C-alpha cells in the first residue's frame, strides 16, 4: 500500500488502473490535501476512490 506521506492522515483510498497487461492495481492512501494534487505514481486512470471516514 502506498501513502502520500507518512506524516499525513489519509482520507481517501484511490485505486488506479495498473500497467497494461498487468493485474496489479496500485492502491494509494491519500490525504485531503494531496488528493487535490490528483496524481500519484505514474498512473493516471482512476478506477475507484473510496472515502475512509
Ligand atoms: Zn498527503
Report on this model:
By secondary structure, the protein is mainly beta. It has one domain (2-51). 8% of the residues lie in helices and 32% in strands. The chain has a four-stranded mixed sheet with strand order 1-3-2-4. It is elongated. The relative contact order is 0.38. The chain binds zinc ion.
Which key terms come to mind for this protein?
32% strand; 4-stranded mixed sheet; single chain; binds zinc ion; mainly beta
The helix-and-strand class reads mainly beta
Count of DSSP-assigned helices? 1
Biggest sheet, in brief? 4 strands, mixed
State the distance separating the first and last CA atoms: 18 Å
Structural Rg = 11 Å
In short:
The chain has 53 residues and is mainly β. 8% of the residues lie in helices and 32% in strands.
List the topology elements.
Blueprint lengths: L1 E2 L8 E5 L10 E4 L1 H4 L10 E6 L2
Parallel strand pairs: 1-3
Antiparallel strand pairs: 2-3, 2-4
Amino acid at each position: 500500500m502506498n501513502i502520500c506521506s507518512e506524516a499525513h492522515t489519509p482520507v481517501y483510498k484511490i485505486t488506479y488502473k495498473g500497467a497494461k497487461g498487468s493485474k496489479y492495481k496500485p492502491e494509494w492512501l491519500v490525504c485531503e490535501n494531496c488528493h487535490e494534487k490528483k496524481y500519484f505514481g505514474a498512473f493516471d486512470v482512476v478506477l475507484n476512490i473510496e472515502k475512509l471516514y
